[in-house]
Amino acid sequence: MSLQYDQIRVELGVDEIPRHWYNIASDLPVPIPPPLDPKTNKPAEAKSLEAIFPRAAIRQEMSTDKYIDIPEEVRDAYLLLGRPSPLQRAVRLEKALKTPAKIFYKREDMSPCGSHKPNSAIPQAYYNMKEGVENLTTETGAGQWGASLAMACAFFDMKCTVFMVKASYEQKPYRRHIMETYGAKVFASPSLETEFGKAMREKDPNTSGSLGMAISEAIEVCVRSKNTKYSLGSVLNHVMLHQTVIGQETKAQLEKIDVTPDHMVACVGGGSNFAGFTFPMIGDKIKKKNDIDFVAVEPRSVPSITKGTYEYDFGDTAGMTPLLKMYTLGHEFVPSAIHAGGLRYHGMAPAVSSVVDQGYARAVSYEQTEVYEAAMMFSKTEGIIPAPESSHAIKATIDLALEAKKKNEEKVIVFNLSGHGLLDMTGYASYIAGNMNHF
Length: 439
Ligand SMILES: *Cc1c(COP(=O)(O)O)cnc(C)c1O
Known about the structure:
The chain is built from 18 helices and 15 strands. By secondary structure, it is α/β, with parallel strands linked by helices. It folds into two domains: 9-15 and 76-115 and 237-433, Rossmann fold (3-Layer(aba) Sandwich); 117-230, Rossmann fold, CATH 3.40.50.1100. Helix 10 (195-203) packs antiparallel against helix 11 (211-224). It is globular and about 60 Å long. The structure holds pyridoxal-5'-phosphate.
């Protein structure tokens, strides 16, 4: 092999952890439509959001500043996450595919919780702590966000209550124990802890739950409790913003080895790892500094961008949130219990929706079984067992690499490995046993 090791694993120094987050709202030709107050249909006022979010997060939500400084304490905690994370070339996967394409992946699987989610959990817990909040409530799908927020709350000495989608609570018991290890309290949603949860259980005692329902429960508890705020792991502008540490690092790493991608690929649930990974480069695309093809990958059974409509909708099932302009399947949509729990959300972040609507990115969807087939191949070649969510990006990457092979083109494909799948073995077991649903 003639490749130098530093062309295979591209590292940045610890002093190269980004010092600011990048805000795509500063560069988009058409502004991201603002959230609306459902009572008046006018833009929601900052004041009305203060019941559930800290002021710093609300300011970031509405900001059009290009860069927002990362507080020192947050950068210190980013160091604990293993930031800057490596960018790695998938040499063995390329070989197995016999493709002339070069494949790179950004390693968000290496954080203590196993995903990109702590990148936003840490600043969110930090800002709440700074404003004197003592308890955070949240929802979690696969348990990745709940685990990340539980860890961040432990860092800043706060209490954490998590409503975990019932399907995942049952499929992924270890995630619950992780949250509990960090000191969080975890309920299967819909639960008997809230009026909304009780109503949902009455309506359908066997419901597998949904992120929309869990969000409603977490907000209900937040609103009725003292000194408590709510924290969302994706969808909102400030979450997209926090995740841009991923894309800023990736950009620096690609520049270091003098490589320009043809495609950048990430999976989308609420949109945060895609946004974080791509927005800094999409900012350059808007300024015509690159012509990268940005690909968002979603499950065929939760096709919010590829099959949904771009309109104002609630972020949760009960209709307690402001209205968000997004690609949506409708807030009452209950997705099938696919193993990629982190991708079971009815809508798509307004920032990501707007970027797609303005033509800077596109979306594709895949069936569960073909996604697992790709995950098996990646595990065998690269050694990392990927999260079922991230495996959607792997499937799309493999397809692009095979297309490059057909055309004999030396394309560069970079994807975001948003997490590892070591706590998602139930899905692998079902795939290997041959009894997995296509959807
Ligand atoms: C939560 C999660 C996702 C989906 O959420 P986004 O906000 O769309 O990034 C993707 N991958 C992993 C590993 C996750 O935990």
